[in-house]
Amino acid sequence: MKPEYDFSKAEKGKFFTPEATFNFHLDFDQLSPGSLVTIPDVTWLEFESILEELGEKRNSRIAYSNRNLEIMVPLPEHEIPRDLLSDIVKVLLKFIKKLYQPFGSTTFKKEGIAGVEPDACFYIENYQKMIGRKRLQPDDPPPDLAIETDVTSKTIDAYQAIQVPELWIYDSGKLTIFVLTENGYINSKISSIFPNLPLLDIIPQLIEKSWKVGSLQALEEFESLLTTF
C-alpha cells in the first residue's frame, strides 16, 4: 500500500504531517515512489500556484477536484504497463482505421473546478485540431481516451469534471473501463471506441505476457490476434 499523507492544516509554503512540518519547496520532490499526498481545502489559485512551484519536469502526478489536491509519485513497475497500454491503443486504432493524435502526460484543466494529468491520452474525434499542438489552449477539448495506472477516487472525479469520454485504468492486473454518460461515469464491460473487442480479457493477458516475452513480441502477437476478430 502506498504511503499516504493527509494535510489537514497548512501555512503558506509549509504543510504538516503527524511526524513533522516540512517545506513544500524542498520535500515534494523527495517523496518516495508510491507516495500519495492529499491536501484538502485548496483553492483554484492555490492549485495553480502549486503547479507552478512543482514545474513540468518532475516525477509526480497531480489530481485536483472538489478543492482536494492529490500529488502522487508512480511506482517504477507501473512504467511498463503504462507504455504498453499506449502502444496497445495505437495498434487498436490502426486496426479499426481510426486517425488519432496522441498526447503525452500534461495537465488538463476545467477552470476553477478540476485538473488532472493522465499517463497517456488520445484525441480521436478532434485529432486534427491537436496536430502540431505543443501546449494546450483554454478552448481545447478534452481527449477522447485517457489511460491511468495509478489512481484514486479523486482522480476519477477530476476526469469526470473535465468530461473525458472514456477512461482506462489498469491496476493489479485488471483493466477497468469508465465510459462517460450524462449522469457521469459508468463502469463498462465494453469500450465505446472499440465496442467489438473483449478488451477486459485481452489487455490484461497481453500485459502479463509482456513480462515474459517482452513488449515487442507481445504486441506482434496481439496484432496477429486482432485479425481473428
TrEMBL record:
Any Pfam family hit: Uma2
Q: Which InterPro entries match?
A: Nuclease_put_TT1808, Uma2
* Superkingdom as given in the UniProt entry: Bacteria
Q: Which Gene3D superfamilies match?
A: tt1808, chain A
Domain Putative restriction endonuclease: start-end pairs:
51-204
Per its record, how is this protein called by name? Putative restriction endonuclease domain-containing protein
Q: Which source organism does the UniProt entry give?
A: Aphanothece hegewaldii CCALA 016
